[in-house]
Amino acid sequence: xxxxxxxxxxxxxxxxxxxxNYLRNRLIDYIWENVTDKEKRQASRRxxxxxxxxxxxxxxxxxxxxxxxxxxxxxxxxxxxxxCEEQAQRILEYGRVVRTYDQAIKIVLMNEAAREIDExxxxxxxxxxxxxxxxxxxxxxxxxxxxxxxxxQLRYEGDLNDNMEVDRDCDQIRAMIxxxxxxxxxxxxxxxxxxxxxxxxxxxxxxxLKKRGTDSAQLKSAAFLLSWEFFKRREQLGLSVESVDFRxxxxxxxxxxxxxxPEEEVDPAVREEEEAEARKFRxxxxxxxxxxxLIEQLQKEELAELKEAQADAARAPRRRVAxxxxxxxxxxxxxxxxxxxxxxxxxxASSRRLNxxxxxxxxxxxxxRVTRSSARAEASRAx
Length: 383
Known about the structure:
Elements: E1 3-4, E2 13-14, H1 18-34, H2 38-48, H3 54-76, H4 84-94, H5 101-115, E3 132-133, E4 164-165, H6 170-181, H7 189-195, H8 202-210, H9 216-219, H10 222-237, H11 246-260, H12 268-337, H13 346-355, H14 372-382
Antiparallel strand pairs: 1-2, 3-4
């Protein structure tokens, strides 16, 4: 049994005292906060703590009041934002595809760069830049969906026309990224970067987010051109940059599709195909959500098991020392409670030693029986 000394009221506490002490603390705190009558307050305290004297009870009450004051101060203190290391550790524990600590740190730096973008920039007004998106010479076109995260292109999405003029500058694109990705959104910066293509690394994307102004080098960069293409595709679909949930975008597209196609002109085979595709998409999203929740649960369980194993490893030396001390204590108490060891008489001991002595001649594998009288006679002759 573990014992803690020198704690509250300078008394020793064991593990079995924890529940009753916790209940006492809560009741004393409740009495201090809600009972105003001094006599009732003192009587209630004595009923809760009959083993304490009046001075000890007063000291105990003061300690509980100090704890309450500290808790109130902590509650009123503004929360400190988590550090980069804490954010990286959280991403590493609950991230979808993050494997190493360095990857998690890069995601944290990318998120910070996105949050530092100036959101007051007017990104809604087009600004022709006299450059064109050349799909054959520039970076490869986006092949993933601009509607749903972690998904391939849907049937609503078409190919972007080649040699379209870029109508936003670099600061406007960065402001659009912040509006689209930061806050409550289905598209965090990491997911947005993944949909730009496999060639868009975290370092390149973070470097683009940290820059300010517009120059020729940025206008030719893959981060700028692919980000502009992403938002241009959404603009052609009639989807807003300020959308926070991809399900709202899907609902808008489905309503538009039903309104543009009259009921009598819809081919039953096409309708069945569309319904099957929509059903397949919903089932896939449900499977994805289940897998994501399962992965998070498994990661939490693995983390709990790891912490438990570390705690067991830390307690193992203490447990061995306690077991050794316990076994040693049992051995000492056994000798003390039992009878004293029996002392053999000197003559009997000498007789036993003589009986085991080998013969001087003949077969050395045999021994002769030596009686007590013969032993005495032999001892007198030797004297």
